[in-house]
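Box 4.2: Ligand-aware structure prediction
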Amino acid sequence: MKNLLGISFLNKKDIISILQTAKAYKEAFYKKTEFEKILQAKTIINLFFEASTRTRTSFEIAAKNLGGQVINIDMKMSSLKKGETIKDTVQNLEQMHPTAFIVRHPDSGFPLFLSKNTSIPIINAGDGAFEHPSQALLDFFTMWEKKKKMEGIKLSILGDILHSRVARSNIFLQKMFKNDVMVFGPQTMIPPQIEKLEVKVAKNLKEACADRDFIMLLRIQLERKSGKSIPSLSEYYKYFALKEVKDAYILHPGPVNKDVEIASSLLYCPRSLIPEQVENGIFIRMAIFHHLSNKV
Ligand code: CP
């Protein structure tokens, strides 16, 4: 595992190992045990070409917990503004001997492209509608914590499946463990032939929410394509949003559009795991560095 480009580049053994490492890091954190400084004297560079709060900050905290130093490149102040290409920027930064680049980009496949043009490990922090592997890993870690099992999980994902990198990474991961995945959303947001991935499509919200362990809501990406795939936000809320929950736990990668994909009253209800997902992001990202550091 030189790079982390997507869940589709990992196998089941990698995923179990990352989750077990994250569990050990979380236990050590709560026991106030000092973490082994596996990134001592190493520099991680955050290259975020798209906004982020959770992913960027938790990668930074994760690296610092392991003794690393983190550089956040301010894209607005970089030489990209003078016409330098991203490829040239990365090849220049490579000369400063970083240990890894954490890359978020609006274009699908951009981290993969960079990985072919640099010898420095690339960690995909979300690319277009392709993958968001660290998010799917932290989601799975949160489910594992609650259910104490990795198989036999019933998950529904609601929202814009077609344009969601979070949905793609989660589906790839869950199907590796043969888990029961159902999706629901407006027809314009469901990828054609999704059944080929052994994913069921619910007929209505009631079916999507019945007898599920977890219900994952996706953000309606108002700034991107999903905003154009629905007639109105109020109609989306009426037919597709989660407004009540019984036995299932609620997941959402964030940021949340309150009262669009989920009723705001559910955000911090007892069944919501949204705060745990954010916290677990740190331990999963420490585990990702741990796995990469064995190979760099
Ligand atoms: N879940 C997620 O990727 O959040 P950020 O955009 O805040 O990083």
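In the box above, the bound molecule is phosphoric acid mono(formamide)ester. The pocket of phosphoric acid mono(formamide)ester is lined by residues 52-55, 126, 135, 253-255 (CB under 6 Å).
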